């Protein structure tokens, strides 16, 4: 991913926080002839100094067979809100652009075959996403035969992250007056546009490429 220096996010803690706040990612691998990709939620786990991503896909997914190859190389993509930026909003004519935030995580993937660990991963996922519901679905509420059949139809995996590239492209290269004009316009549009506007304000106020963590004192 091409990342100009003024858009680069280099703090590991900030990058991890971004991934945790935008867990629905894209796993990309290759069958040697063409790229193969699947959209899935990914869990982010720090284990000492190492960073891992965990998730699962349907076993019938053609990418499943690729992931089962020993230590296969993959790319996981995470992204936040994004929006078009019209150059008509600037003080002077310029090229239009697109504002966005994204993280690319590169690493080696290993499938998880332990039935006990697979079950625990899905239990944890259910608890995490159902925990905030008014009437949460609990593990024991799902018929055991149905759940066991489902567990046999998925491929669980973990990715040991070897490299992280991160970008917050939020008009850091524009003047204060241009930025104010852009956020004013975005505030008048949809929810995603307004989220980008809030991120732009946050970046400009702190003068650092951080949205989820604070600068160390």
Automatic annotation (TrEMBL):
GO terms for biological process: proteolysis. It comes from the Bacteria. This is Protease synthase and sporulation protein PAI 2. Pfam families: FMN_bind_2. GO terms for molecular function: peptidase activity. InterPro entries: Split_barrel_FMN-bd, TR_PAI2-type. Keywords: Hydrolase, Protease. It comes from Brevibacillus reuszeri.
């Amino acid at each position: 991913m091409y990342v100009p220096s003024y858009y680069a996010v280099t703090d590991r803690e900030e990058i991890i926080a971004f991934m945790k706040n935008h867990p629905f990612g894209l796993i990309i691998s290759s069958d040697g002839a063409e790229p193969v990709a699947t959209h899935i939620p990914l869990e982010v786990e720090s284990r000492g100094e190492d960073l891992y991503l965990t998730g699962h896909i349907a076993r019938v997914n053609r990418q499943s067979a690729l992931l089962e190859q020993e230590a296969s190389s993959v790319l996981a993509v995470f992204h936040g809100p994004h929006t078009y930026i019209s150059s008509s909003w600037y003080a002077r004519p310029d090229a239009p652009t697109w504002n966005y935030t994204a993280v690319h995580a590169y690493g080696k993937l290993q499938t998880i075959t332990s039935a006990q660990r697979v079950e625990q991963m899905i239990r944890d996922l259910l608890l995490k996403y159902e925990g905030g519901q008014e009437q949460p679905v609990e593990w024991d509420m799902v018929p055991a035969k149905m759940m066991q059949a489902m567990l046999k139809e998925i491929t669980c995996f973990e990715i040991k992250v070897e490299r992280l590239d991160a970008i917050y492209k939020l008009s850091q290269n524009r003047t204060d007056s241009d930025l104010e004009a852009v956020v004013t316009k975005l505030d008048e549009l949809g929810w995603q546009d307004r989220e980008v506007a809030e991120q732009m304000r946050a970046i400009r106020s702190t003068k650092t490429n951080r949205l989820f963590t604070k600068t160390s004192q």
